[in-house]
Amino acid sequence: MxxxxxxxxxxxxxxxxxxxxEAECLASQAACIAANPPSDGRSISGDITRLIQEAxxxxxxxxxxxxxxGAIALMNGETATTEQ
Length: 84
Hints:
By secondary structure, the protein is mostly helical. It is 85% helix and 0% strand. The chain has a domain at 21-33 and 44-79. It is rod-shaped.
């Protein structure tokens, strides 16, 4: 039988792996923007808009991970209290 703690831990590991992948992609996009500043005939406002949108998604994932870690800590605390 899988406990809620185990299921949440598994889900968090997947979310953390996805977070790393998305953060690396975001960093790559930011580096590309930095390497190619606006110039005559080149606008980067669309690139920056996409970067901001992806940063917002990354923030949402980070918040979800942090909430999950907090829930696991609470479950572990309840387990420790119950076992004493």
